[in-house]
Amino acid sequence: MIVHPPVHWFRLLFAWRGSILPAIFPRLMLVLSCALVVVIFHRFTQGFGLQLSVGAFSLIGLALAIFLGFRNSSSYERYWEARKLWGALLINARSLQRQAMSMTSLPADHAELHEFSQLLQAFAYALNHQLRCTDPRSDLYRLLPYPLAKELSVVRYIPSMVLVQLAQYLSVWYRTGKIDVILFQSMDANLNHLSDIQGGCERIMTTPIPYAYSVLIHRTIYMYCILLPLGLVDSCGVLTPLITVFIAYTFMALENIASSLELPFGFEPNDLALNAICRTIERSLLEMRGETTLPPACLPQKNYILD
Amino acid sequence: MIVHPPVHWFRLLFAWRGSILPAIFPRLMLVLSCALVVVIFHRFTQGFGLQLSVGAFSLIGLALAIFLGFRNSSSYERYWEARKLWGALLINARSLQRQAMSMTSLPADHAELHEFSQLLQAFAYALNHQLRCTDPRSDLYRLLPYPLAKELSVVRYIPSMVLVQLAQYLSVWYRTGKIDVILFQSMDANLNHLSDIQGGCERIMTTPIPYAYSVLIHRTIYMYCILLPLGLVDSCGVLTPLITVFIAYTFMALENIASSLELPFGFEPNDLALNAICRTIERSLLEMRGETTLPPACLPQKNYILD
Amino acid sequence: MIVHPPVHWFRLLFAWRGSILPAIFPRLMLVLSCALVVVIFHRFTQGFGLQLSVGAFSLIGLALAIFLGFRNSSSYERYWEARKLWGALLINARSLQRQAMSMTSLPADHAELHEFSQLLQAFAYALNHQLRCTDPRSDLYRLLPYPLAKELSVVRYIPSMVLVQLAQYLSVWYRTGKIDVILFQSMDANLNHLSDIQGGCERIMTTPIPYAYSVLIHRTIYMYCILLPLGLVDSCGVLTPLITVFIAYTFMALENIASSLELPFGFEPNDLALNAICRTIERSLLEMRGETTLPPACLPQKNYILD
Amino acid sequence: MIVHPPVHWFRLLFAWRGSILPAIFPRLMLVLSCALVVVIFHRFTQGFGLQLSVGAFSLIGLALAIFLGFRNSSSYERYWEARKLWGALLINARSLQRQAMSMTSLPADHAELHEFSQLLQAFAYALNHQLRCTDPRSDLYRLLPYPLAKELSVVRYIPSMVLVQLAQYLSVWYRTGKIDVILFQSMDANLNHLSDIQGGCERIMTTPIPYAYSVLIHRTIYMYCILLPLGLVDSCGVLTPLITVFIAYTFMALENIASSLELPFGFEPNDLALNAICRTIERSLLEMRGETTLPPACLPQKNYILD
Amino acid sequence: MIVHPPVHWFRLLFAWRGSILPAIFPRLMLVLSCALVVVIFHRFTQGFGLQLSVGAFSLIGLALAIFLGFRNSSSYERYWEARKLWGALLINARSLQRQAMSMTSLPADHAELHEFSQLLQAFAYALNHQLRCTDPRSDLYRLLPYPLAKELSVVRYIPSMVLVQLAQYLSVWYRTGKIDVILFQSMDANLNHLSDIQGGCERIMTTPIPYAYSVLIHRTIYMYCILLPLGLVDSCGVLTPLITVFIAYTFMALENIASSLELPFGFEPNDLALNAICRTIERSLLEMRGETTLPPACLPQKNYILD
């Protein structure tokens, strides 16, 4: 996630890093070449009837508007739903921590409360690693006792197993009379919410926008941009390449942003800052437990990117 | 569901399999023929006043934009709602499994916990078969004891009856003191969620988008594409067939994708991978029960299709 | 609801029954007449300056796009919400039936369980009759004991009174120790859901889209269609009537579908098949109770219409 | 709320009352005057280069489409949310009434049940008066015992205080053993819903659409309508005033409807019929209590307006 | 938040304060200068082929419509979600206050009820200060006892710690038998809601719309406005600067409003009136406790701005 400080409107016009421009630059050069060819050979092609009117492009533009509008809004919705799920993870972790402190009859400094809290943090880190397909072991060993970390590091769905562990704590507290059955149920409901969050993230990760859409949208954009100079050259003359590249830039950049937001759990500049959220969860839970020295918050790296 | 690995933007332009192109190829050829006829006889038809302006098509395009935008978004919403319901099925199955393990006083390896877990898997498979109108018997006999499987295989709404069976387990545990009434209620709430999921899927399956829409949209698209060459031939000349086919491709492909996503429970390439989700549920529940040898995950078949 | 089997794309173009065409045919003929008059007298009117450009219509089209897009999506949302409410009715009836069987200590064949189940079915039928303003008595007398049916048949809000009756059963079971208070509450929560469903349907029935919208949209469409030939005749010549009728067809048909879906509880072809859903509820509840002979499912009547 | 019976499509074209036309008639006359001036002096102005093309207006139309589409949908959403909240009020009042009758051990004709039911009705009426800034005293004195009505009539947030009173009944019943704690909680959850409804209505009432939007949209519409004749006069000639007024009518009427629906709690023709809903709540609760003589339902007044 | 009283439609056209005009005035002057240069040198530039057609701009306008429509609706949704969260805060604070009064066995004037109520108010103020990055100390010291205020004023996530304090009250009441476990759970559920509200606001504050969008939209708007005079000068002549500035005004103002609403917790005129909502919460809770002298409601300051 890019966390740029507010930029003056004039400098924003010339932003390079963090904008989508570098990624699509080669393709824009290709479109520029086509446009230059059309402008240069304009005089010769007229004999062959290879002209197109702007009107034809406004008809194609209709389909393009539907495609890009849909592509954009559905990708952004996925991004924002993912963000909401991670926001809910922070909320639920805090709620469970608060409930563990106020609902059980354990003293505030009891070891089991500490272990429970560590498991909550481990859930967040494990989900992060599952979604990004990275190695969870360093975080598991850091947060959990060695045997448990070892046991968890070989399973397939680690967050599910962490929830089973959390439920075991509740179950033991319930059977030994440390928590009333009603309050057990109430905390278990929050475990259900954590399960919802895990399932929601897995759904976003494993189900991209249907493949047929991607092909159709991609093809329409490129076909449109390649043919565009033929339609503009009559009315725009030598400015044809400029306008063509400008239009191509807007469409390609939009498609590029959308396909980047579609799968928001990666390491690209516009993806969600899962590491920073995990750290926030860790810091917030520690503070609620009364710790005064907290690990530092994640800070944006070069180019204002927070990952 | 097609699970293509990321394809280079250039190769994506020429994708054939998995794109919607093969399905609509004959109709595009029909449109192409019309366009060729118009171009060839252009000189002769002018005498009869059979010309149309591009402007007229932008007026029709207005209705088309509303129709296709609506068709597309309502179909995709149905698809995505169906996906959410199946994601929720995975979540709820896990939650019920976790609750059965932590809330009852049964030892972890008790036979009834095993049977309960098998019933949860059977629910997923039975719903899959109901929605796809396939034969559920092989999965029922594989997962459940013979008499129960036999009894279930003749009823009309199998998932409902599986829920009744699951409720019977909870009821017996409750009456024999193996689970507190509060926790019974809490697990029963998750059975309600499973019932919601079943009902939601049935709703999507039995209620397509109103028939009058399909007729109206279909008719507008074809009428538009057939008339289009008359409107373009003046300004586009010999390029008329190319532009006509391109525009027809975008509209027909969009309608085709939309009507494919409208009923997302079939076996078409863009439908949901229900079999794979059922297998994921099976694997996840087995792992939570401590099984170490899991059945293999479903892998995409030829053309990257996961069903 | 029309439940057409999939139709070949070519035959779909010429569908008459079930399409909206018959309803708007007279008005299309009126528009056609206007267009013919304009084409025939075109030569004479030019002297009076009665020409319009296509451009002016694209400006009006802007407002039309907003109106029709809004009209269409808000009507469809009402239709789909109504469908969801009736889907939820099926789900909740099943859940209450399952809970009555597993949560009470009554034997499975107890008369009160039977009566409770009949009341659930009566709720669905009574709501159906209330929404369609039809006579509920035949269904009430069929499903309920005579005195109760007689008592209910004279009240104003029958479904509310059925809920009071259902709550009485729960109350009696609770006071006689046949159900724990927790489980009473849990079943009562599902009664609340039934109340939500009733209220939601009543809201859709009694609150149409604001009247000022209907007037505004209606007026804009007709004004647009009547003036359209003046704008097309210059560029489309003798094809003007064809294009005018085609455009008028798309707009009027869309408005007609939308106003039909706006109030989805009637008997029109595109309305919801409430009778069929009531029958499904009846069949599903009977099957859950162990009945093996079920009343037949509703089948589509002539023209594939299910009501 | 206007509850027009279905009107024949032809007569709908000439509706005057209940349409938005009277409200914007003077402004349309102003636009008409401008258009007439432009047409009359057209010959003279050409020398000064004061011509505009239709194309320029389609560019401005782009912004207008975004503004009006947004304005319309956000206002309608507010209207529909308000309607949902009042629908939920009816639902919750019924549920609480049903619960009071089935969950407490009080006999059906106990005075406290009567008072509880009266308080529920008073909640609806008090909220109605708060939202419409009218005097609640007549309804309070009608429904409640004199001392309570007097006490409530001087507070600032009457519905909140009615909820406190309702909670007091529950609290007393709970402490005197007339209701189990579980069922107390269950009824209290419905009080929370009533609180949600109150808060939701207050939010809609106190937070209009941001002021900057209103200014921007308003200004764009009027600027557009005043300049429009300059763009149309070349291509539409003497029909310019007709087309200008028609376009201005669609835009101004839409803005007018939207700003009327934005604050749906007033007494304008398109506002919600809060009085009628309050009466429905009163009738429904009385019927559930077994009353056979109900106060008459609200009927639409002149011009089919229900308030 | 600007709470303008209804303004006459004619005066609204000339509103300056509270409109977005002052903020973008310099940029509009820049656009005006470009347009004037183009008009003045129009005769000379024609020789160089530097003309553009309006048609080209309608193609670019397509992308602009998608961008601005998306930008506007996503920003407004964030604004409205934030408003809903603060509305829910008022609702939940009232509910908790009501529950504390009716569910505990404490007398109505007990000191702990007073402290609990003060903590609820402190939660609202602390969240306000966290979101606006202002100093919470004056409000904390005003509402809470000195030691607690001092302890809270140094932590990082103050609202979380206030929730821990609120939970401590519930926990103590529960352990000393002043509240039943069921009712404890019920109030704790409302604490969870407060946690949801906090988390939702934090999410909106820390996650702006992806940076790449801002760059892309900003760039497209400015490029469009700078090039626009070249496209209009042929058809609009001396009116080119007027039309250009008018179009630029609509686009820039819309972008400006959207980026203002995107982060709705600041002190700009269109931001939410958090101070006023906090005061409403304070007043409402005090009234429910029976206080008769309430602190004054926040009134709009100069220019009708409520902050």
Characterization of this structure:
- The structure is a homopentamer of 307-residue chains.
- By secondary structure, chain A is an all-alpha fold.
- Chain A has one domain (9-304).
- Helix content of chain A is 72%, strand content 0%.
- Chain A has helices spanning 9-12, 21-40, 42-45, 54-103, 111-132, 137-143, 146-152, 158-175, 181-206, 211-236, 240-262, 274-288.
- In chain A, helix 4 packs antiparallel against helix 9.
- At the A-B interface, helix 4, helix 8, helix 9 and helix 10 of A face helix 4, helix 9, helix 10, helix 11 and helix 12 of B.
In total, how many domains does the architecture of chain A comprise?
A: 1
Oligomeric state of the chains in view: homopentamer
**Portion in strands of chain A:** under 5%
Shape of chain A: elongated
Please write the string of helix (H) and strand (E) elements of chain A.
HHHHHHHHHHHH
Structural class of chain A: mainly alpha
Q: State the helicity of chain A in percent bands.
A: over 70%
Terminal-residue CA separation of chain A: 6 Å
Largest sheet of chain A: none
Beta strands of chain A, count: 0
Low-confidence parts of chain A, pLDDT < 50 over ≥5 residues? Answer: none
Average pLDDT confidence of chain A is: 89
Rg estimate of chain A, integer Å: 27 Å
Number of helices of chain A: 12
The largest contact between protein chains, plus residue counts on each side, is: A-B, 63 and 68 residues
Membrane topology (chains A, B, C, D, E): Multi-pass membrane protein
Organism (chains A, B, C, D, E): Iodobacter arcticus
Keywords (chains A, B, C, D, E): Cell membrane, Ion transport, Membrane, Transmembrane, Transmembrane helix, Transport
Family (chains A, B, C, D, E): Belongs to the anion channel-forming bestrophin (TC 1.A.46) family.
